Amino acid sequence: MSWHIEQATIDSYTTGAIGRASAASVEAHLATCAGCRAMLAVAPLWLEQSWAGVADVVEAPKLTVVERFLRSLGVPGHMARLISVTPSLRPSWILAVAISLVFAGMASRLAAQQNGIDLFLMLAPLVPVAGVAVAYGRLGDPAYEITVSSPVDPVRLLFLRSTAVTVMAIAFSFLVDIGIRTDVGTGAWLLPALALTLITLALGTRLTMWVAASTVAVVWIALILGAARQVPGRPATVLFTPSSQLVYLAAMVTAGWVLTHRQDYYRRGGAR
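Below the sequence we write its predicted structure tokens.
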């Protein structure tokens, strides 16, 4: 470089008294000339604060809708972030769940006319199970390595994520249920859904979470298909009678007891 910026120009640039075109020319030269950069009289404290402000804007991730909602409920910021990155709380997952439930509801109306299997009653209890299957663990959690290395109780995080996923799934299911009005009554699938979810978490102390969820799903579908062979008319309704609800309640209590007594398995990093 055969020329350098004059001191008067540097002073004008520092005080902001220089025109835009000239400022652009000065900045282009400063990017390649260490000598002229050294002539800039910049307060160290001002420079440090400026860079800190830039870093806060550039590096800080944007809050998702889920994270903002959780914070509005009083959930601490660090926990809200760990919950919000749950794969089954992503917009794409939520949209897929909503579409699946609506499709199942429409298919159930057709099944009612043909005395077929009620697809909605088969699917609704499995939605939270599917969400829990990828809510915690190496398989579906993009923040798994960060999570396990952070000072957060794994059991607490597991319960918080599972609760968030289950609440979301139940809310969507209720909306569809109200729209199609199943023969078994609104919300009759709720206890089965909670029971299957708790059973999945309990089995997760013995099996990898996705294997536990798959096992629960296969057993549930087998029960539905078995009822279809044994009961004429609407076969799925036999699984939602008052006596059946008592069985689901007992299953919830049992699974909850197992989960409580084996929760240390999750703390040791098992069933991932």
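Residues 22 and 191 are 72 Å apart (CA to CA).
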